[in-house]
C-alpha cells in the first residue's frame, strides 16, 4: 500500500509481521495472523514481548494532536482487537483497543513501561467503536465513542522523556493473541492539531 494516507500529515511505515495492509476509498484494512500480539506480561520473567503484531505507524508532528478512527473488528477469538497505537520507545508504548475481552467487545487499554498493564474500561454493542488518541502537552489521552460525536474519557498517562514524547509515532495495530487471525478496518480516519479542550466533558 502507499505509505501516505490523505487524512494524515505524515507517512506510515510497517512494523512487525506482515499485516497485508490495504487502503481504498478512505478505508484502511489490516489482518493479524495467528497468535500475534504486542504485550509484555506484567508478571513474566522477560521484558520482551512473546510475539509481535502488525503495526502501521508514522512520526506525528510536534505539538498537541487528535488521531481518530472508527474501528471495526472481525472478531473470531478472545482478545482479537483493532488498536490505535502509540510508540515512544522500544519499552515505552500504549494501545487503545476495541477487543473481544474475552467474550464481549470491550474498550481496553495497555500502557507499557518495561512491562505492560492491562485495563478493561467498558463493553460496547457490536463490533464497531470510534477510538481517539490525543497528545496534550506532556501527556497522552485515550477516548472512545459510539458515534464519533460524544466522547467517553478512558485514560490519561505519560510515557518516556520529553524528547521521546515529542518524537512519538502513532498509528494502527491489529492483533489476534489466542486465535487464528482476524481482519480489522479503520475508517473515518482523521488527524487534527490541538488536543481536546476538556478530557471529561464529552468533547
UniProtKB/TrEMBL annotation:
Pfam families: DUF1349
InterPro entries membership: ConA-like_dom_sf, DUF1349
Organism superkingdom: Bacteria
Protein name in the entry: DUF1349 domain-containing protein
Source organism (scientific name): Streptomyces salyersiae
